[in-house]
Amino acid sequence: MTNIAELPTKDTITLIINKKNVDKVTYVFKNKYGNKIGEYENRSPATLSSRSNVARQFKQIINPKGDMKPNLFNNQFTELKQLLQLHYENELLIIKQEIADKKQAEQEKDIVKLKEAITKLQSLDYPLIYIGSIVEWFTAGERNNILYAFTVYAGQVVLGSPVSVICLGEASSGKSHIQETALRLIPNQYIVNEKKITEAALFNRAKKDEYFYDGKIVNYGDMGGVNDHDFMEESKNLMKELQSD
């Protein structure tokens, strides 16, 4: 396997990359009999120092008596890092391909579902009534409010016209439930969930992708706290600038 490196002592090191954060790597040491003798979390192999936990375990394996010259150990550890880095990059390629394949499969499923939905809606005289009947399976007593929110959300995606949807009400009156149910009727790729967003964060996103929010529904969730009012005012102003641009 490409994620296992064998040492001259017949011991092995297995790399396990955290798929949610590929900068985090787990190094599992096993002896020649397959028994685990150490497990450490660190960063990618190329960034490992000679004082790292991985280096210490490696030194304990190849130099148990402690009589190896520092230069010789450093050379051997450098060679090991190069080998591990090669395995790391190969694993990254596999992970990226798995993500790409999963994304493509999801997109193909969405295309099939979209075609089915279009066919169904085109056969209906009153599609909103049909959608409303589906909504009633999710919740009770808020059909109209959910349909209002859904209609505006869908219009934002389809027409690309920036609109704000604000639900006002007493605590525990079902505001979040209305929004969440309406959003469940829309594919996830059109929704960006934000809790707190600053001008700096928007700027950094714009540097990576200036159309990050284009055609997206930005969901701020519950904004019921006292401190949320100032933040909401700032966020609205930032979004106005984006909408104007």
Describe this structure in words.
This protein is α+β, with helices and mostly antiparallel strands and 245 residues long. It is built from seven helices and six strands, in the order ββββαααααβαβα. It has a four-stranded antiparallel sheet with strand order 1-2-3-4. Helix 3 packs across helix 4 and helix 4 crosses helix 5. The two termini are 51 Å apart.
SSE order and pairing:
Layout: E1 4-6, E2 12-17, E3 25-30, E4 36-42, H1 53-62, H2 70-122, H3 127-138, H4 143-159, H5 175-184, E5 191-193, H6 199-208, E6 217-219, H7 228-244
Please tell me what the overall shape is: elongated
Instruction: Kindly report how far apart the N and C termini lie.
Output: 51 Å
Taken in chain order, the helices and strands follow as EEEEHHHHHEHEH
**Amount of helix:** 40-55%
Strand order of the largest sheet: 1-2-3-4
- Helix/strand class: alpha+beta
Radius of gyration, in angstroms, nearest whole number:
27 Å
Number of strands: 6
Note the total helix count: 7
